[in-house]
């Protein structure tokens, strides 16, 4: 299995710093199923290429077969595509060999990981269940130009047609850490299978590697289901854990990869994320806001909806993650956006717990699924920054309702919807906090449920609308 990573960034040899692998050395890394090699076919200031080659030991692979489903026939234990096609074996090796690069760290050159580089990633053989079109559906929304070359079943027998393998080439400008995370998650998804037993730990791996891009991906459900080997319980837990960015009501997304649409199909209620964004927009319009500050904007879904409404003449998206801001920039297609629309948009890297003069001067501010990510001890700092210094006429806050968690299948008692949540409040606790903030900073507040409202547990999302 082979992956090459090429860049024409100047100087191109910065790739060695980012990968933490010296271009002048060939390095070997022992894996449970073989050996991974890293080397540089070319290394010049104008172009640099790093290669990851994984050699599989079939006997080592066979010794672990007892942990997964047995093959349909005995010969398949010895004759299969695992040594040659970039599948989950290769993703595991990539995660191990380039662990520090995946985390976006570079001690020697700390400014490098946040730079977007012109990159070309090439894999000569990738199993692709779903064909070349499925590969494009996975990678193009992430900003890659995708070229696929079908691999024939037998070059000497063209009538047999193509195999399920493709040569895959991805071209685009990305942070190297993001590019590696895309491969780490999506190679097993393309294959549709894993070489090891999938348990709850896989959810953590998926959420860590997919941070900043998975929740906003149009194929999110299919990616999640395939990555978790179609295990329904794990899928439901993972979808619930993505709740703070783009969650769904229980059962709203069945994880189908290519759902059929028929004329007789009943209308499904919109996803909770859509209902939440709609409720926030309605509150902003009722407040006659024209300039809006979206704090914790993430991938920019609400920002995009605000830009689509001519009432909002200035839209500012802010997120603490530079990667999230860049993802929003790409997702909104800022480079090709009409000039009039682009003039209404500002994207900033910033934190809601630090004073920032750029936050001032807006009619309204939004904290949509943000406060639960802040340590309780830091909430007073956020309150001072948003309600005290920025002091817009209106502030809209949404947060999960902890009481509703009992209705999410797969969430244990007292568990939270996401590992990054510092707390999740019930309705009484949220209303108490909101009223105290309103009294301190001269606001009034009203409360609205968002999404389906259960008679006992309330709605999944609770919203507070503050106004002077």
From TrEMBL:
<keyword id="KW-0943">RNA-mediated gene silencing</keyword>
<dbReference type="InterPro" id="IPR024740">
    <property type="entry name" value="Hen1_N"/>
</dbReference>
<dbReference type="Pfam" id="PF13649">
    <property type="entry name" value="Methyltransf_25"/>
</dbReference>
<feature type="domain" description="Hen1 N-terminal">
    <location>
        <begin position="1"/>
        <end position="243"/>
    </location>
</feature>
<dbReference type="GO" id="GO:0090486">
    <property type="term" value="F:small RNA 2'-O-methyltransferase activity"/>
</dbReference>
<keyword id="KW-0479">Metal-binding</keyword>
<dbReference type="GO" id="GO:0046872">
    <property type="term" value="F:metal ion binding"/>
</dbReference>
<dbReference type="InterPro" id="IPR024026">
    <property type="entry name" value="3'-RNA_MeTfrase_Hen1_bac"/>
</dbReference>
<dbReference type="GO" id="GO:0003723">
    <property type="term" value="F:RNA binding"/>
</dbReference>
<keyword id="KW-0949">S-adenosyl-L-methionine</keyword>
<dbReference type="InterPro" id="IPR041698">
    <property type="entry name" value="Methyltransf_25"/>
</dbReference>
<keyword id="KW-0460">Magnesium</keyword>
<dbReference type="InterPro" id="IPR038546">
    <property type="entry name" value="Hen1_N_sf"/>
</dbReference>
<dbReference type="InterPro" id="IPR029063">
    <property type="entry name" value="SAM-dependent_MTases_sf"/>
</dbReference>
<dbReference type="InterPro" id="IPR026610">
    <property type="entry name" value="Hen1"/>
</dbReference>
<protein>
    <recommendedName>
        <fullName>Small RNA 2'-O-methyltransferase</fullName>
        <ecNumber>2.1.1.386</ecNumber>
    </recommendedName>
</protein>
<dbReference type="GO" id="GO:0001510">
    <property type="term" value="P:RNA methylation"/>
</dbReference>
<keyword id="KW-0694">RNA-binding</keyword>
<dbReference type="Pfam" id="PF12623">
    <property type="entry name" value="Hen1_L"/>
</dbReference>
<dbReference type="GO" id="GO:0031047">
    <property type="term" value="P:regulatory ncRNA-mediated gene silencing"/>
</dbReference>
<keyword id="KW-0489">Methyltransferase</keyword>
<feature type="region of interest" description="Disordered">
    <location>
        <begin position="248"/>
        <end position="269"/>
    </location>
</feature>
<comment type="similarity">
    <text>Belongs to the methyltransferase superfamily. HEN1 family.</text>
</comment>
<keyword id="KW-0808">Transferase</keyword>
<feature type="domain" description="Methyltransferase">
    <location>
        <begin position="292"/>
        <end position="381"/>
    </location>
</feature>
